[in-house]
Amino acid sequence: MGAKKKARAKKAAPRRKAVRRPPAHGHHKPANSNEPHLSSRPIWQGNLRLSLVSCPVALFGATSRSGTVSFHLLNPQTNNRIRMIPTDPDTGPVERTDLVKGYEISKNHYVVLSNDELDAVKLETTKTIDIERFVDADDIDRLYWNTPYYLLPGEKGGVEAYTVIREALKKTDRFALGRVVMHGRERLVALEPRDKGILCYTLRMGDEVVQPKDAFADIPDQKADPQMVEIARKIIEQREGPFEPSTFEDRYENALRDLIRRKERGEKLVTAEPVPQDNVIDLMAALKKSLKGGGAGPARRRKAG
């Protein structure tokens, strides 16, 4: 009898709640927040190495699309979400885990590669950002800048070495160039000291960028009217101001959210009138009208010098 009472008492005991550890890096906002936030998991983890100095680091995305409106494909007859199932045109649906990677060498002819074969060609940069060179930021053409990341100290220590590298970059006023393997390919990266941390930008390789001389080759060599250029310059001066990202909003995104809210409430939707398009016939007259109108909008305040 005593054993039964003990069993019942044990069963009735309240369950202990699991203690959730706070994220290791950054200030993470709730998943339903529309504000950009640092992800809880790094995109890449490894080591940052400068000659014989090394420390564990982790890469986190510096940008976030958590607040972007995204849609799912639904069956309009059932409102069920559609599942994308890998399908062989001859045999039908296949399991994704059974698929292999192939490189097409000619029409419908592939070289098939196993995971072991792909692992065999992994580079040291798969787990290490090895600093190779130091350059002035102005030496890197903006065409080559790609995606920004935050490079943070790893969870296994190494903050001292991380801090030394960061402060050395600040004192020399240089960007460090290195390489890292991300998303299945090796990327060139530039490291910039910022506040207490280091920013990491992926850079495009030389064979990824179309050169301006090629892109602009067919533009006629036409001289601009100096008087028109002067008026355009004055319009630009009227619109001068500091770069303040918070003053710019994604108007299309806002309109989508408003449309979704109104549709959810069952409101009758009204189609907006098309915006009239001005056919510019007299460029000089249009420039003068723009100058008189203050550049077709309120002038931005100038940055304090």
Q: Can you lay out the helices and strands and say which pair or pack?
A:
Blueprint: H1 2-12, E1 44-50, E2 53-61, E3 87-88, E4 92-93, E5 101-106, E6 109-113, H2 115-120, E7 128-130, E8 133-135, E9 145-153, H3 159-172, E10 175-182, E11 185-194, E12 197-203, H4 212-215, H5 226-238, H6 251-264, H7 283-292
Parallel strand pairs: 1-7
Antiparallel strand pairs: 1-2, 2-9, 3-4, 5-6, 8-10, 9-12, 10-11, 11-12
Helix pairs in contact: 5-7
Structure summary:
By secondary structure, the protein is an alpha+beta fold.
What are the defining features of this structure?
8-stranded mixed beta sheet; extended; 7 helices; two-stranded antiparallel ribbon; 23% strand; alpha+beta; disordered N terminus; 305 residues; Ku70, Chain: A, Domain 2
Detailed description of the structure:
The protein has an 8-stranded mixed sheet. A two-stranded antiparallel sheet has the order 3-4. The chain has helices at residues 2-12, 115-120, 159-172, 212-215, 226-238, 251-264, 283-292, and strands spanning 44-50, 53-61, 87-88, 92-93, 101-106, 109-113, 128-130, 133-135, 145-153, 175-182, 185-194, 197-203. It is built from 7 helices and 12 strands. Helix 5 (226-238) runs parallel beside helix 7. It has a domain at 51-61 and 121-208: Ku70, Chain: A, Domain 2 (Beta Barrel), CATH 2.40.290. With 305 residues, the chain is α+β, with helices and mostly antiparallel strands.
